[in-house]
Amino acid sequence: MKLGIVLATRVDLDDAAALAHAARRARHEVAIFLMDTGCTAIAEAPAIATALLDDDCELVACSNSAVGLVLVDGIERGSQDDHAAVIGTSDRVVAFT
Hints:
Radius of gyration: 12 Å
Distance between the termini: 23 Å
Number of helices: 4
């Protein structure tokens, strides 16, 4: 099973990361699309970003929302096409908006 997570808020980063790690422990694929203040949240929390990447989660940040932000290596910069791909290829989606 693949879990898609959309994070568009700053305050939900910890919950989104905990959900992603739990899904990986259950051997599920995880893809996270970050947009709006979700991009700022992940940029301000490089340890969380690194832990997610180390746990083999796919992280894609909306390039428009991430303008001027320094992101951890391994986080892709993408577009709403990538957002649609995460939604379209996931068996279940959780949105933190």
